[in-house]
Amino acid sequence: MQRALPRVLRILRARRPLGARHCASDAAAGGREIQVRALAGPDRGITEILMNRPHARNALGHVFIKELFEALARLREDQHVRVLLFRSGVKGVFCAGADLKEREQMSPVEVGVFVQRLRGLMNEIAAFPAPTIAAMDGFALGGGLELALACDLRVAASSAVMGLIETTRGLLPGAGGTQRLPRCLGVALAKELIFTGRRLNGEQAHQLGLVNHAVAQNEEGDAAYHRARALAQEILPQAPIAVRLGKAAIDRGMEVDIASGMAIEGMCYAQNIPTQDRLEGMAAFREKRAPKFVGK
């Protein structure tokens, strides 16, 4: 609990928007492998991270990881971001996992450093203060599935293919999969999937509880993205501070015993009491109208 509490206390730090939002459109981002787009209009508050490395099927290479780290660092302090949505710009692929061609050129020491950095990236995604959603419209294998597991919510096309297949390559999951999959599915089922390297389609993953929603793929190949965006739209009207603190209470509480978890929940609740949004929610209930939350 001693380690969990400081992270809870940091949830509301630096509550200022970025001076320049650095959210480029896909066109303006040029050849970047990670592109960031803040949506407007009724979708204002949804920010998308577009993974766009088509020649390597969004494999997790050095540049990809560097750019994703940079994007997360910018966005985590931006209070305009109410939901962060991960999607692919490569049709038929979410993320194909580690870039094994790059990996072959590394020494054993370099591999260890690289995997540690990759694990750190997944931890950054998991610790992102706002809700995160993975829209899985295609293959999500190995590190690609570990990236999705680091998100809060997952939506998959029924035709998507996912699995922690590292044992079929003489490896084991090294970016958090051995820890996050058991928390998602239970220990015995997680072991079965990791030991066998089994691949699942979106519908099978939904039946097991690995993804929140599975949808039939459309001709454009982006059905999961549209369902994920609709899910994000359900989150948008809710009080953003309460949502962030609810995420912190769940995530930090899962790391400790239930008594300590209850204490963490109490601390999160206490931080929410003085917010304008809490008073607005109570006033809206009393006046029988929809609340207008401002994130303060």
Q: What percent strand?
A: 5-15%
Please list the strands of the largest sheet in the order they lie side by side: 1-2-3-5-7-10
**Which structural class do you get from the secondary structure elements?**
alpha/beta
CATH topology of the largest domain: 2-enoyl-CoA Hydratase, Chain A, domain 1
**Rg from alpha-carbon coordinates:** 19 Å
Give the CATH architecture of the largest domain. Alpha-Beta Complex
Number of domains: 2
Count of helical stretches: 12
Q: Helicity level, as a percent range?
A: 40-55%
Under CATH at level 1, the class of the largest domain stands as: Alpha Beta
Distance between the termini: 28 Å
Low-confidence stretches are 11-28
Query: pLDDT average, as an integer?
Result: 89
Tell me the number of strands: 10
Classified in CATH, the superfamily of the largest domain is: 2-enoyl-CoA Hydratase, Chain A, domain 1
The largest sheet is:
6 strands, mixed
The dominant shape is globular
